[in-house]
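Memo to structure team: turn this sequence into structure tokens by end of day. - J.P.
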Amino acid sequence: MRSRFKESKGIHLLISMLIRYPQVSTIRFVHKGKFVILTFLLNGFIEEETFQKFLSKVKDYFVAMQEFDHTVNKWGTFSRSVLNEVTFITYTQSLNHLSLSEIRLVTALIQEHFESYILLDPIELRMEDMEAQDEVIEHLLHHQEGITEEQDLVAYRDGGKVFVYNM
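Reply from structure team:
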């Protein structure tokens, strides 16, 4: 069986992030500018006021986190959109600034703030599997020179499987 992609560090990063963090529905890698876009799906209409309260909380956490973790030096941007009673929250960050601590914080805050709304694809991971995925993610983020994608990628999870496509 032939793979449509040459295996790459960028593809491995997207796959590991989706396996490790079930709160993330899709991840896009934009090769021009090397941006990563995490998308979270929420069941229902999330009001703008609720989203703004969430952003205020995120800002407070990021400021506190920057004092303790110097790998987080610039946080990305959040956006919200709604389509047919599904709210999409996206987090966009430059790959050069993205850290494992930041991914953990963003997913934890989404999980905490929108717990009853978040759409999850149930993936059961043991603690040692989660730690192994975190190690892979951290290694790939620290060795970004190997991430040389020449096209945009999108990765998503469906039925416990992860799919990666070029765009």
